[in-house]
Amino acid sequence: MFDLPTLHALYKETAPHTEALAPPPWALAGEGLWGSVFDLGDGTMLKVVRRHGGLGSGEALHHREASALAFLGGLATDYVRVPRLIASGAFTNSYIGSAPPLAGWLRIERIAGKRLTTDGVLTMNARERDLLGERIGAAVADFGVEASARATAAESKLADTVTRSLMLSRAQLSTAELHRAADAISLGWENLRASGPLVFVHGDLNPGNLIDAGPREPLGFVDFAEAGWSLAEAEFRHFEPLGALRDSTFRGVTARRGRGPDMRAYYLAAAADALMTIAIQGNAGHPRDAMRRMGLLRHCLAEAGLD
Ligand SMILES: Nc1ncnc2c1ncn2[C@@H]1O[C@H](COP(=O)(O)OP(=O)(O)O)[C@@H](O)[C@H]1O
Ligand SMILES: [Mg+2]
């Protein structure tokens, strides 16, 4: 969260590059590892990305999101929609008020609806959760088709989020067991990638990046910092801990696409994600949390045939 003088400094940096930007105060809509998102109250959002956050660099995340949204913005089917990108820019000034070092900003169309949360989907009643999962599955199927066509037309070269997360985590891991796991997942994943087909994926789908405006409306996808060409199963890399929602999502995608996910590819992507969580969080939290993270990794490795 930024103080008011910092918001004014941000306003001074961004306002010359985007029309009719209202001056602060701005309402904070979300705050994550990599930055803050403000609801400007005029149907648009301002996302500010930090240079430092988790693994990797904020400059790369900002670049990826701005370049993906440039051709994905406005994508809409009966099941999915993507907000338009209005303007974006990189920060060259390293001292903006008292903000931490900032990489860039994006002004994005606001999607109406409520943001989902992991706790929310885990505690939903079964009927609601099944319906939501089926909608997410259909949204993923539609997104794969539409986004791949747009990315091809735009000649996008944005790379695979799973490959990248494996490289970033490997450098951070400290035990031989985890290095072996990273290498085995990489080998398995690259082998599957070689036979394709590759699809343009959102790459970071989790409840917090979905905006739900009700059962008859398309789901909004936001947060494109991990978008790129990957295997279709990469879209579900965060879904293994979501329990029953994962199953209904798979039903939805199978119904819409006519074929279900390849479970080996899925578990490799989920294992890469579990490894990334270990690389970022290490032994943080209660000892049980660390055990749970290792448990998820071992489970995904076993399901992928790598134990
Ligand atoms: N275009 C948008 N329309 C509506 N809400 C949005 C939009 N973009 C972001 N948000 C809200 O802000 C939150 C954080 O944005 P996000 O792009 O996911 O950033 P982060 O990198 O912090 O996860 C989202 O979970 C969502 O609630
Ligand atoms: Mg997000």
Describe what you observe in this structure:
The structure is a single chain. It contains nine helices and eleven strands. The mean pLDDT is 96. β2 and β3 (44-50) form a beta hairpin. The protein has 307 residues and is of the alpha+beta class. It has helices at residues 4-14, 58-72, 118-123, 126-153, 161-170, 176-195, 244-257, 263-281, 287-303; strands at residues 27-32, 35-39, 44-50, 80-81, 85-90, 102-109, 114-115, 199-201, 210-212, 219-221, 228-230. The protein has two domains: 4-110, Phosphorylase Kinase, domain 1; 115-303, Aminoglycoside 3'-phosphotransferase, Chain: A, domain 2, CATH 3.90.1200.10. The radius of gyration is 19 Å and the shape is globular. It binds adenosine-5'-diphosphate (ADP) and magnesium ion (MG). Magnesium ion binds at residues 32, 208-209, 223.
